[in-house]
Amino acid sequence: YGMKNVLCSSKDSKGNLYLGFAVGGLAVLTEEGCLKRIDIQGIGDARHRSLVIDLDDNLWVSSDNGGVYCVCISENLQPLNRKEYPSHLFNDQHITAMYCDKDGVVWVGTMNGLYRYDSNTDSYKEFEHPYPRENFYVSGIIEDHSGNLWITGLRGIYRITDDAMVQYYEPLTRCEIGKTAYKSGLAIDKN
């Protein structure tokens, strides 16, 4: 298919693994082990830095210079329709991380901010917090068993509780704790 360098992945409720590539677009590795290219009108071969499957098995995918798309996928793994959330909603920044929390809210991290999907307005709103940083590059988003979101950035880690309280943890060093060119991943242990 001409796809190179997997940048992101997410699994649906049926065990299919969706893959976003730096070159060549999107694909799904089925539970049976077959790799199928996913052609979505208008975003096919774009660079996809992040994607996530929501609670309804919709595919949310980022596209450099295009913003975010929500794609309804059929039983035979073909795109049925798509909804576009253009890049200007994210201050024209590349999308660097996406996460669907336990309540079905799709969060989007960019090179300079964090955004929360509002299903009432069918739009994204920038998440305001009391720890503004000159460069709030979001490299990862994950949720713990208590429903807290953990957001990794270049200079520290943010914890957002269910009641939207934000705590910021910064190492004593003045250097960056992450690199913009690398995403090493996130994990939370079972405890």
Describe this structure as you would to a colleague.
- The chain has no helices and 16 strands.
- By secondary structure, it is mostly beta strands.
- The strands form 4 sheets. A 4-stranded antiparallel sheet has the order 1-2-3-4, with no helix packed on it. Strands 5-6-7-8 form a 4-stranded antiparallel sheet, with no helix packed on it. Strands 9-10-11-12 form a 4-stranded antiparallel sheet, with no helix packed on it.
- It is globular, with a radius of gyration of 16 Å.
Percentage of helical residues?
A: under 10%
User: What is the molecular shape?
Assistant: globular
Low-confidence stretches: 179-183
| Main beta-sheet annotation | 4 strands, antiparallel
- Give me the Rg, rounded: 16 Å
Mean pLDDT: 85
Strand content: 35-45%
Overall number of strands: 16
SSE order, as H and E?
Answer: EEEEEEEEEEEEEEEE
Structural class: mainly beta
- Tally of helical segments: 0
List the strand order in the largest sheet: 1-2-3-4
End-to-end separation in angstroms reads 41 Å
